[in-house]
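Why do we care about 3D structure at all? Because function follows from shape, and shape follows, mostly, from sequence. That is the central idea of this module. The next example makes it concrete: a single protein chain, its amino acid sequence, and then its structure expressed as tokens.
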Amino acid sequence: MGEDDPRLLLLVDRDSAQIRVTASIAARAGWRTHTVSDGIAALAYLHARDSEKPQALLLDSLVAREDSCQLIGDIRAQAPGLPILFLTHSASPLLAVEAMRAGATDYLMKPIAAERMLYALESSVGADGNHDELAPLTEKIEAPLDFDMMIGSAPNFRDAMARAAKGARGHAPVLITGEPGTGKELLARAMRSASPRSKAPFVVLHTAGMSAGNLESAIYGHEKGAFPGAFDRRVGCLQDADGGTLLIDDIERLPPALQNRLARTIETGEARPMGATHSFRLDVRIIATAGEEHGLLVEHGVLDPALAQAMSGCTLHLPPLRARHGDIAPLARHFLALIGEQPGLRRLGVTDDALALLEGYEWPGNLRQLQAVLFRAVVFCDRDALTVQDFPQLFDLVGDSIPSVAQAVHGGGITLFGADGHLRTLEEIEADVIRLAIGHYRGRMSEVARRLGIGRSTLYRKLGDLGIDNAA
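And the structure:
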């Protein structure tokens, strides 16, 4: 198969309606599909020498039911490098966890969201077992949606949060920009939760993979017979969100004419469905996300100037994770707490060396990728804390820089966890802190005691109890 040939997705499914939806979504990204109805047929197809080799496989959990994990293992044995996407109807990630342990690359929840499936397919292209560790997962772990969940202390991040908290109280349109995976949708949801419209309708439109005609209909709706194929009347997102908030993800994907029309709607508060002879007034706050900063969107010609002006009242930019390395440790602990609450998983700690390893990576997939890496590590970890050995690919990429990162970020080598992944004793940690303080303040014991919040006599008693030479 040539580089420009359509890629092949092998569907293991027997639901005709689901098959049509999946094939349609995949076709938008240039994928062809071949469908088999059960696991036996899938294994036979993969084994046959004259069968075209697929670039990915999607397995519906309802095909094999309780034997899904066994089937995944059999497929993995038959085709070791084949990305396996697991489709589950359960809201609980328990089955997805078991599927990943059996060899699945990624998982999707029913009903399939087009943009998430496309993201999973694109992430799977060229992936093999060595890439899985750093490949972003498609589904996200749900968490309470408020500003307390926006973790980070980097100045550029806290500035964005302060402006977002202030903007949340108003009614003006909001534009949130940032690289994929930086948390734009999470921030949008947090702003809505903190707004006067928190109890009103909230509608989300993901534009990825949608055609221009479908986008216009999705936003404005259409009357029956408005265009070929419009067999029924459709209510658009604007009308669904009347009185509340409409979140448009990746607004730069809207075609220029639709962007201009949306700008007029924001200005006038009026919208007309496709094929309608009348307009209706509405009260909708629009929050939009985009991949580039406000000025660059206009400069690069991907955002209509009129829409850019309409959305300019409150613009926020979320920095990439590589620009806020100091936030990686608290974010990792936060994600581990959320992951540990999922069925089939448990809350794990993380060693300082492992944190230093995480901090040494650039994270092109940002928060989404960090969470995915931690999720996979927890799935396969059998200790009480994640260590460097739980991130083998990451270690291959940045392992040589771990000592300098650990020294810079973790206070001269003070660690909370031992090499076995277990917490060190409080006495050991306390001794390290005191030694660090003595060295930092050059043996000035009064200053050491003051900074540690204890008296000089208590400090000297601790030195004796811990066997520390105050000249250390």
